[in-house]
Amino acid sequence: MKTTRTLNHDMLTSELSADVDPFAYISHLGSSSWLPPLTTGTIIFLAVLLAFHISVAAISLIILLLPHVGKTKRESWFLRKLYIHASSGKKVYNTPLYLVNTGILMSIWEFLGSIATQVYLLLQIAIHVSPQFASRTESGPALSVMLICNIYSYWSTAHGFLTLSYTNKIFVDDPKNLRWLRSPLLINVSFIIFPMSVAVAIAILQANLSLTVHEAQVELRTRQATLTQGSLAWNQLQHTHSSDDQERLLLQIAQSWAKVDSSTKLFEIIVQSLRDKFLLLRSAMLASMLATTLVFVFSFWKLTRTFNKQGRGSSNSTYLKSDCSGPSTKNCSIQKCTSTRLDSSTEQSLFKTMRSDRQFFRLTMRASAILLGILTGLTYWLLVSFRIDDVLLNPNWHGLMTWLPALSGSWAAVPLTLQSWQLYQDQKKPPVGTSGHREDVIPTHIHFTSETVTQVEVIGPAPEAFPLNHDHLSEIKNMDQTSSSQVTLSRFLEGFVAFVEFG
After folding, report:
1. Burial call 193-225: b when 16+ CB within 10 Å, e when fewer
2. How far, CA to CA in Å, does 215 sit from each of 212, 221, 441?
3. pLDDT tens profile 422-478
4. d(CA 433, CA 445)
5. Which residue in 158, 182, 187, 216 has its CB near the most CB atoms, within 10 A?
6. pTM of the predicted model as reported, rounded to 2 decimal places
7. In what order do the strands lie in the sheet with 79-84?
C-alpha cells in the first residue's frame, strides 16, 4: 500500500482553468481512484459463491443437528483417550492419544467458515454497490475469520490422517521398532497449540489493522466533508458580487484548502502505519499457510504409506485393542490382538491402492481438494505481496483478489461436508455386543485374499478418528430406526454422496 495514492493538491490543480472547482475535482478524483470498481462478471461469480456457501452451511448445520432430533436420538462423542500398550501389557506411553470426532469438528468448522465467507461476500458486494457503505466498513475481519476456519478445517483433517496412520501401525515387541512410534504428547500438543496460536496471532494483528483502517476511514470522511464545504464556498464565490462576501468566501476557501492539505498529510502517516501492519498480517498468514501445507502433506504421506503397506507379507495381522469402560468410552486403553493370515505379495502402489480401496480413494480425493484450497490461499497472499499496486489500481486484479480467498475455502467444502456426512452415517452403526463393559478394536491391517483368513476378531466398532474401511466390515451394518423425515433426508444426502463420488 504505497502513499502515491495520496493527493498533492497543488500539482493536481496547477493545470486547471480558473473556472474549474478544484475541491470538486479532488473529491471526484479521490473517490473514483481509491477503490477500483468490480466488473459485472466478478459480481456474478461472487453471487454464485454466496449461494454455494449458503448450501454448505445449511448441510453442515443439518449434520450437526440430525443426531439430536427425531424419534431415535444418539449420543455423539467428541473426545476420546487412547492408551497404547504393547502385547506384554506394558504401556508404550503414559500419555494418551486424543481422538477427536472429526465428523463433528469438521462440520463445525465448515459451518463457521461458510458463515464467515457469506459475510465477506456480502460485504464485498455492498461495498461495490454503495460507496458510502465502503467508507464506513471493511471486509478484513470477515476475511480473517474465514481463513482461520479454513486453517482449522485443514488441521482437523490432517489430525485425522495422522491419527489413522498412527493407529494403523503394526507394533511388535522389538524395542528398536517401538522407538519409531511418534509420541502422543507431541501429536496432542502440536494439534492444539499451533491452531490456537494462529487464531490468537491473526486476531490480534487483524484487530490492530482494523483500528488503523478505521482511523483512515474517519480521516477520509473528514477530508470529504472539508472538500464539500470548500466546493460550496467556491460555487458561492462564482455568483457573488459583493466585496465583503467575496472576502469572506475567499477566507473560507483558504481555510478549507489548508484543512484538506493537513488532512492529506495526516492520511499519509496513517497509510504508512496501515501498510506496516498489513505486512505483519500478511507475514503471519503466509507462515501459517506454509506450516499448514507442510503438516498436511506430511500427514497424508504417512497415511499413504500405511495404506500402501497393507499388501506387505506378514504372518500376523495386528490390532490395536481399545479397552473402553462405560457408555461414553472416553477413556480407552489400546492393546494388541494378533490373528493369523496368509502372506500377501509386495507393497501396493498408490494407484493400485486407490483402485482396490474405496476408503483410500475417497480420502485421496478429499486430500487433493484440500491441497488445492491451500495452494489457492497461498497464491492469494503471494499476489498480495508482489502485485499490490495492480490490486489497488486495476479493476480486473481487484476483482480477482476479491473472490480468490472465498474460492480457497470452497475447494474443500464439498469433500469435507461429504466426509462429515459419511462419519455421521458411521455413527448410526450400533456397537456389537450387549455387555456393559464395551471393547473397541481398531483393525490395523485386514487383508482379504482368495484364501481363508483365520481368527479375524471384530468385537466392536473402532473409535472414529477417521472412518475405517466399512467395505470390509459390512457385516456389522445394522441401522437405527429413525423418524420418516430423517430417513428421507438421509436417502437424499446418500444419493448426493454417491453422485459426487462415482459420477
Report:
1. ebbeebbebbeebbeebeebbebbbebbeebbe
2. 5, 10, 59
3. 766 666 555 444 333 333 333 333 233 333 333 333 333 344 444 443 333 333 233
4. 23
5. 158
6. 0.71
7. 97-100, 79-84, 331-340, 316-325, 437-443
